[in-house]
Amino acid sequence: MSSKEVKAALKSARDAIRNKEYKEALKHCKAVLKQEKNNYNAWVFIGLAAAELEQPDQARGAYKKAIELEPNQLLAWQGLANLYEKPNQTDVKGDLADVYQKLLQLYESGDKQKWCDVCNKLVELYHQEKKYLEVAETWQKLIRMKEEEGAEKTELHQLWKKMIQLLKDSTRNQDNKTGQLLLTAFEHALLSADPVPGEDHQNLYKDFIRCLSEFPHEAARLEKACHDMMALYPTMVYPLEVLCLHFVQSGTLSENALHCFSRLLEMDANSGPGIIGFGIKCLKENKYKEAVKSLTEGLQKTNQCPAAWLYLAEAQMKIHEHRNAVLSCNQALEALGTPEGPNFRWKNLALQLKAETLVKIADADAAEEAIKALEQIADGSSDPVVLALRGQAYLNKGSMDQASKISQELLLSHPHLAEAHALEGFIHYSQKNYEQAEKSFLNAIERKAGTAEYHQYLGLTYWFMSVETKKDKGKALTQFLKAAKLDSYLGCAFRYLGNYYRDIAGDKSRARGCYKKAFELDETDEESGTAAVNLSVELGDMDTALSILNEVTEKARPGRAKWAWLHRGLYYLRTGQPSQAVADLQAALRADPKDSNCWESLGEAYLNRGSYSTALKSFRKASELNPGLVYSIYRAAALEQILGKYENAIATYQEILKTTEDYVPALKG
């Protein structure tokens, strides 16, 4: 076949393809290849015809042969791209990306529009594959091309915004380079926005700041962006809120941070971040109750702030709300999720604070939970303070051997650590080895004199060591006073001060004040509440006694605060108010249905009210629970007599006289 015939055959093949006669086209191409096996156009036409006849393998082979012959010719690359773009072509995205890359090279110096079309396709392909770095780099090339062609500012602005859109969902998995390209896109979009200030520009700025806040290492850039936006939009609270949360999460409380908190609250008194900031300020100023109030309120509005939950837990711990502090630590850990970078430090802090709080709760279940929390702290096994906490948790759990082992190891490896000596003291105290406990707590105080708990336990050691140390003003009393001074929320210290003033010094008024303070700090402290009420009665101050009882009973849930209901019921009984006495004594029995004395008092209240049948049932219940309550048995007999049940009454009187022959009321009955 001559060259003229080859040209004619190729023309026939082209015409056949145009007429969709693909098999005919293949015949012409094969005829050409018999004569010229390296004919580029023939291989391209075979690829095209085979693709249309749904013979993808033959088409791919033909295009690749053509490319091998002429690697810088467009036709075969275009054909291969069209083939790979067909819906039935799977697992070819990597190959298609390579084809697009080659087409970009070939179009670069020629058809700019086609270059842009291919560039868009390549970016879309990378985006589907979540190859965000490649998306960013390729889109930047497109913008550069447009800039070189002198594109309008408006078009460039839209292109930068499109780049942001393409990358915005990827911030959590981005490598540093992709992140930087996204931030660059934001900066260019902001510079090219028009008008400024304006709605589009404002929304872009918000998105930029939101994006920056997801990059822990861009703190300086975030602060600058917030300040710049505040300058442009002085009435908007958003940048100030982000800045305040940034300061909270960074854990630094500079003058600048405090100024931002104040300014935010001036602009919006209900702003969650502003209220949180104020709460942290209160915490740093040792205003713990105000801190708890503000942090709780702020977190109701802005709850995804791990550091704020931790500050709340710290404030709650300061006022000994230990169970609430554990809940706050759990909220912090939940908000942190699986932390990385700076948040990893917050996780360790949350776990340690949770363990400290659980150790203070001091029951076996809390101890078990504390041990689990400590096990999750990174490098916790090499931190002596964490080890001392673990020792205390084992002690609370009752695992004395493990607690002692940790104590001995710590004293050898860290003899200057206060916590090591304190742990030894706690162990001796729990074993009633008071002389050894005294030495340990004195050693702990020597190393860390400002810890109220050490003084409290040294005071308790003296209290139980001997009568002499209990009475010695320089021993127990001094330590309880120091503990109370160092921690004005330490209810236990005030309770023992009350014990000292009541039992040793005989100062009822001062004792009552201490018990009242202890009970105000811890409403579950029944011993202090009861003592405050009893001393108020002894001092003739019924108003104070009743105010304490009223406050407790108003807050009490059903089945709780038996002591308060009982005390107030007895007061009403003594003062001739039987109906009120009945109501309160019934409430006390809901808390403890097996208290025989309470049933006896209820019977007395019903009797005074004239409810004889109910009174009889109450006295019988009291004597069933405690057969030794002769008064209840006598009262039951007397009521049977009043109700005309004479035989029953005689039998009951005789029963009393069998055990107590000279019980005069029964003889009279």
UniProtKB/TrEMBL annotation:
Single Gene Ontology BP annotation: RNA catabolic process
Keyword Metal-binding: no
GO annotations of cellular component type: Ski complex
Keyword terms: Repeat, TPR repeat
TPR repeat positions: 40-73, 562-595, 596-629
Segments crossing the lipid bilayer: none
Protein name, as recorded: TTC37 protein
Lineage, uppermost ranks: Eukaryota, Metazoa, Chordata, Craniata, Vertebrata
